[in-house]
Write the structure tokens for this entry.
Amino acid sequence: MPRSGWKSKDRSRPAFRFPEGGKIVVERLNRRWARAKLPKLGWVRFRWSRRLGGAVKNATVMREGRHWYISFLVGDGEQPPARHAKPGTWIGVDRGVAKIVTTSEGRFHHQVFARGREVEHAAKLQRDLARTTKGSNRRKRAARRVGAFTVRSAGVVRTSLPKPLTP
């Protein structure tokens, strides 16, 4: 039986992209909060975490777990250099399982994302989920706990991965 190419509502995260940067207005409300006017959606208030540093080209609103996030693509006006800083050199990067990042120079970058207590906590949440009755409210609550923990740990991995490659 052929598989459909449709996305399951449970396995994809909702995200909306607003590509018309000229129509997006961003206002700072105070030190901590700002709002953006998005086409066909209106004003969206968000937590100001860093300055934009350029003209907004597009915006993406997405949900992860129980929270909604907005991200902006901004143009800083800088042009890439015409020549590489060290012409004639290159480096290869291999992302793997045993070591997170291995370069062609032979350098290894390994980072432990989950500490001992976090691994134990994840195992306990999975045990709690396995010991519940299918379809029960207790199982739904246990599944929410596992999902919230997974979103948190995925955020740690996502923010930590590119760091070894930055100078």
